[in-house]
Amino acid sequence: MSRILLFLTFASFLMPASAETPSERVAAVKKMPGLVAFWDFVRREEGGEKRFLAHVPEGAANDYALDAANYIKDYWGAGPAATYADFPLMGRGPFGEAIRIRAEENPDFRPFLYVPRSRLHDTPLDIKGAGKSVTVVVWAIRESGNHALAGIWHEGTDLKQKETSSIQKVERGQRQYALFAGLNKEGSACGHVSENGASSFLNRYALHKSNSVGTSPKVPWDAPADVLDASWQCFAMTFNHETDQLTGWLNGEAGERWLENPKDDRLISSAYNAWKQGHLHREPGVQEGEDPAFPKDQFYNPPEEEPLAVETISESDEELVEIREYPYTKVKVVTRGDQQTRDLVALKLNPWWYPHDLYTPADDGSGGPFTIGRVIHSSRSVGFTGWIGGVAVFDRALTAEELKAMTEVGRKPVSLTKLP
């Protein structure tokens, strides 16, 4: 059986008609090739703390129990400890249960669920290095916010800003991969990856990220049950190392998203400069506007061989002005005689070109945890709030057909109490 046919076979297995109860839906997700871990917030330890456990492939040694923590207490030494009581349960959801991430009013309280680095380092969940792809899927209802849903994304606590003036534990960024609820495009499905754990293009932040065209609505956490049941969104991100594409997907749809005038964007202007510096560096000598100290591994130059489309803006005997569209960029080219100037006028945000490997921490002391609901970060903002009804991680890039099937499998939320 071909690989494509195999994937389509599994995708068809996931259609709602074959997955009407929580157990059937869980089985459907587990059947998808490449599954590493799947938390449905139903499976728990039988004794002790009764922490949430992941469904993992048969024979796997690690079921990735989730601990509760308040990272402000861990890094600033302030605020209360977090417990499972800080994550109210809905009593139903795509797989029978869901947890709530609340808009905590105490600025010293930012609880999340997590797998410590010591329990995930070098396990299948620790997706990193050469030739590795990844997919993160989160079934959620967004009440507010645009920040993290799930992933290995310790943003670091080393940024010099007001919020870090009293910090007690300073750590460099330890980012690998994660799924966000939009970031710069609030409500979209935003994939985020890093090759170095830290920043991109000399900006203070990591900027390799993609944003789905679709955006999720805001739904009050206490909306009527029928409204909540109709409001589940399937957020997903894929990184495919074979195509160098990072893609955000909402409800199985990705779409092409462009950012016009990246030079003027507050953050993506750094990617614009990385594009510019890469092109200037290729010219002999030091060019006007070139920074010889700009690190070569931070140039951002997506492929621009043959244009996909050319639009003539103006043409005269002295000058030709064109917009040349390439797979990930739109470039304004001005030709005067035998002289040409080029300027980046649009940058594709979805899919985003990412030609690197995923960051590989040297050891379990230099890698981040896998977190759900929030990530460790210096600004300490509330982040995403709402309901999360499932989190799944795969060690490959799922196809559009498979992600559409993942959306369908969670379309009709059910309650465990309705099981026969």
Question: How would you describe the overall organization of this protein?
Answer:
The chain is of the alpha+beta class and 420 residues long. It folds into two domains: 321 residues, Jelly Rolls (Sandwich); 88 residues, no CATH class. It is built from seven helices and 19 strands. Strands 1, 3, 5, 10, 11, 17 and 19 form a seven-stranded antiparallel beta sheet that branches. Strands 2-4-18-6-7-8-9 form a seven-stranded antiparallel beta sheet. A hairpin with a 2-residue loop joins strand 15 and strand 16. Helix 1 runs parallel beside helix 7. The radius of gyration is 23 Å and the shape is globular.
Short structural description:
With 420 residues, the protein is α+β, with helices and mostly antiparallel strands. The chain has helices at residues 3-13, 22-31, 71-76, 117-120, 225-229, 269-282, 400-409, and strands at 35-39, 67-70, 99-101, 111-115, 134-144, 148-154, 174-180, 190-193, 209-211, 233-240, 245-250, 257-260, 309-315, 320-325, 329-336, 339-350, 352-353, 370-372, 385-394. The model is unreliable at 1-18 and 416-420 (pLDDT under 50).
